[in-house]
Amino acid sequence: MRVLGVIVAAYEKASGLSGTFRPDIVEVRRTLDVVVDDITEEAGGVRSLRLVAADGADLPGWHPGAHVDVVLPSGRQRQYSLTGSPRAHDHYRIAVRAIPLEHGGGGGSLEVHSLEVGQPLTLRGPRNAFPFIGVDHYLFVAGGIGITPIRPMLYDAIERGADWQFVYTGRDRGSMPFLAELTELAAAYPDRVHLRPDDEFGVPTGAAILDYAPDGAALYTCGPPPMIEAIRGMIPAENIATLHYERFSPPPVVGGEPFTVVLARSGHVVPVAEDQSALSAIRAVLPDVAYSCQQGYCGTCPVALIGGEVDHRDRCLTAAQQESRMTICVSRGVGRVTLDL
Ligand code: FES
To answer: Does the pTM of the predicted model rise above 0.85?
Structure first.
C-alpha cells in the first residue's frame, strides 16, 4: 500500500461519525532481527514473505490488526500488516503489492519485491493501530491487498464461533491475494464467504456491501479508498454497530490551506497546495526524504522546525516535541515554515 502496506487505522462509532475515536497507538520500541525464510507469489504483483528470527528464537506475540515496521536494506521503512496466524510464534508473514513509481509508489514495495530468501531485515514492533474487538457479529470486507489485516481477524472469528460474513473484492481473480485459500473457505462456508471480483460482479456499492452484514455487526474493512469511502458513506446504518477501517493510502487533507515550506539546507522553496501534504510536495524535490505511514503516527517523518507556525495534526509527537519539530506527512504550516531539510 503502498503506499500499500502502510497502515492507518481509524475507529468510528457507527452511530455518529462526529464521534470519531482514534485508538491510542502504543509505541513499541522493540527491534527484531529477522531473515526472509520463504517467498510466495500470492497474486499478480503480490508476494508474501515468511520472516523468522535471525537467531531462531520465537517472535513476540501479536493480535489481529497488528503491523510491523520493516526497515529495508536501503534504509526505507515501510509498515505491513501481519497476515499469518497469531498462534504461530516461529514466524511472521507479510504480503506486499508492488506499486510502480509511476503509479505513486515510493520505492518501498518494489524493494520488497527485489528481496531474496536469506535477506536479513530489521523489524520494529509489532504494534496495533487497527485493534480487533471481540464481539459476536462481524462483517469483514477486504479489497485486494486489504485482505492482509482482515485475514487473521477472519480466522479468529471462525475459531471463536462468532457470527460473521466476509466480502472480498478485487479487480479480477488474478489480482486477489490468497484467493485459492479463500476459495476453499468459500466452499466450506458458502453462505458466509462472498468472493466478488469486479470484472465478474461489478464494483459493489456501499449499500450492497452492507447488505451482507449480520445485525449488530462490527464492520472491519481494509481496501482501496473508494471502497472505504463507499462504506463510510452508508454509516450510520441499522445493522452496523461499529465501523473499523484501515487505510493503505494517506487520508485526504481536510480543511487544508495552502502554505510554503522553505527547506533551509537544500535551498528549496516548496509551495504546498490546500489538498496536498507537505511530504508529497517535498518529495517532488527531495525524493529520498524519510517517511513511512504517511498518516502521522509512526514517527518516521518529523523534521526540525527552524521557523514559522505549524498546525500540528500528528499523533507521534508530544506537545514539547511539537515546539521544535513538524510531522510533514500530516501537519501543515501556517503561511510559511522553515524546516531543517
Ligand atoms: S510518515 Fe509516519 S508520522 Fe509521518
So the answer is: no
